[in-house]
Amino acid sequence: MKVAPVFEASDHRWWIVYDQDEQRVIDSNVYVIESRGEAMLLDPGGFEIFPQVFAALSEIVAPSKIKAAFVSHQDPDIASSLPLWNACNPKIQWYVPKLWEGFIRHYGALDATLTDIPDEGMDIVLGGRRLDFVPAHYLHSSANFHVYDPEAKVYFSGDVGAALLPPGHGAWVERREDATAAGDKAFAEHIEHGAKYFHQRWMPSERAKKNWIGRVRKLSIDYLCPQHGAIYSQEHVQRFLDWFDALPVGSAAE
Ligand SMILES: [Fe+2]
Ligand SMILES: [Fe+2]
Q: Considering the entire predicted model, what is its pTM?
């Protein structure tokens, strides 16, 4: 896997670990925040890709500096690496949706320290900076959260914004960050090639989608970071929200 910076400002950084080598499992991204020497993993990934993620991460953050890990929902591509991370660093504080805690325990590591995220969300402090765990229920999991960093203006959106891209893909939706026709074209190509089917098929609730879009539009977001696919920057964030708003979701083959 590769590592790329998402946001950098002295002692405050975000990275993406992306484009996994193992093609038999769904391609997934892992994000890392470092704030004043304290690190947090966001959706640390599946059991199968743990060795790749661990090797890539070790280039940027010492595993002993990882203080916390955030789990957006219960899926195996999100959290099945939990027992392996716990074996490497048992001091990691795990934040998991309250509704899913007893299910996530099935991955193992019964001694891991899990903190429940209540349905209404919560804030934590990492290296002196506030991070918000934003409710995003039914997008797609029934208890599901995102992470907003108001200082960096980075929003981790879990499976929202996801795209199923071919091996060798980049970390970013082509960076045409201007509000021009070329930017529209780059965005449309990304959606058509990887994101449209994912949202139509995995997102179950029109009502939850509208509710989430209304709340997220009030935030100032420079980078919208999904757990599959590529990052939406600047104008692409608005393009994504407009597109998702208009997309009918919540039905399988009819
Ligand atoms: Fe998922
Ligand atoms: Fe996922």
A: 0.97
